Amino acid sequence: MDDQTTLWGTGIDLEVPREAQSCMSHGIETLLTTKEASEVLKIHPKVLERMAKRGEVPALKVGKFWRYRATTLDAWINSRLQSGSQACRTATSF
């Protein structure tokens, strides 16, 4: 049976397979798939893969698949917000 865990700082629940739970208990962070990471970032999976390929987002290529650490993505987002390298819009006017 799969368990659930909340992704750091997002409030998003992810199902964690039993095999991954044993890794997490030993201090190894479970890697997110492109689909999972793109859901957290609210962007299309192909956009995220292009960003990973160009080195614009922290990612790890495992075989032919991209993987992402949730804590690294969180740190990346925070660093971009603090550095002002990416403009933030809090309101949209039409």
Radius of gyration, whole Å: 15 Å
- The H/E string reads EEHEHHEEH
Unreliable sequence segments: none
Number of helices: 4
Q: What is the structural class? A: alpha+beta
Shape: globular
CA-CA gap between termini: 47 Å
Report the average pLDDT across residues.
77
Beta-strand content bin: 15-25%
The major beta sheet can be summarized as: 3 strands, antiparallel
Q: Using DSSP, what is the number of strands?
A: 5
Strands of the widest sheet, in order across it, are 3-5-4
The total domain count is 1
What does this structure look like?
With 94 residues, the protein is of the alpha+beta class. The protein has one domain. It is built from four helices and five strands. The N and C termini lie far apart (47 Å).
Task: Please describe the topology of this protein.
Blueprint lengths: L2 E4 L6 E4 L1 H8 L5 E2 L1 H8 L3 H9 L6 E3 L2 E5 H14 L11
Antiparallel strand pairs: 1-2, 3-5, 4-5
Helix pairs in contact: 2-3
